[in-house]
Amino acid sequence: MGLNRPITIGRIDYANVWPIFHYAEQWLPRDRFIIDTRVPSALNRALAQGEIDITSMSSYAYAEHAKDYLVLPNLSVSAKGRVNSILLITKKPLETVLRGTIAMTSTSATSVNLLKIIMSLYYKANPSYITMEPLLDSMLEQADAALLIGDTAIQASWRNEGFTVIDLGELWKSWTGYGMTFALVAVRRTTAEADPEAVATVLHALTESKRLSLQDPSPLIEKACVQLGGEPSYWSRYFQELTYHFGSDEQAGLSLYFDYAKQLGLLDEEIQICFFEDHTALQVNE
């Protein structure tokens, strides 16, 4: 049992994922675990192609390959309402946007498809979409609105230039009554079957990092101010408004998102979320 190579772990290096990873590497020996940092879309591809074993990933990308993956329990990037970093930004009236063109980030699948769901089922609109690099000025030169995610979205929201900013997490909540899960942590089934103890080690490291980060977010707040700018008060609220668990409420909201995606033909089949089962804790308690 076990793999004769290190386990490769994908990390999204957006601030919204920091709590899950900030402390984790101290429990992941470098001779056994490799951390690979990329944007969400690149990690999604890498997991699908078997280049990495475990990753934080877009919820939609998990659904596309759900039969090949297992979700690590109680880890996510979710929001019960406002998410602050999944934003539709426009200089034009919403009526123009709904019948116009929206430039979408090239870095995330979940947010792109959430926008399509909201446009189709909530606004009853059918705008055109173009995919671009996440550069706000360029996007708004070619389109009526821009969808940005992560740190780029946060920094764009600080620009006081007459933009209208629609938070997709907040809009989803007001429409459906549910929170939204934007990212999960998933492992390839083949990796989980070949080396469940290594996967359990990763699960424990990420869970403990989450616990420590939520217990005292001040190191993350300081890091965000240094690396990304902004005031401590902003980042304190930012981390408080995100949810890093994946309990029944988060699962219900994500299941609704998957149902809507299938309804619109964005997913081919119904999604059953399957979890990695950590048996090491049971063994310890016996």
TrEMBL record:
Pathway: Quinol/quinone metabolism; menaquinone biosynthesis. One of its GO terms (molecular function) is hydro-lyase activity. It is an enzyme of class 4 (lyase). Its EC number is 4.2.1.151. Keywords: Lyase, Menaquinone biosynthesis. GO terms for biological process: menaquinone biosynthetic process. It catalyses: chorismate = 3-[(1-carboxyvinyl)-oxy]benzoate + H2O. Belongs to the MqnA/MqnD family. MqnA subfamily. Catalyzes the dehydration of chorismate into 3-[(1-carboxyvinyl)oxy]benzoate, a step in the biosynthesis of menaquinone (MK, vitamin K2). This is Chorismate dehydratase. The lineage of its organism: Bacteria, Bacillati, Bacillota, Bacilli, Bacillales.
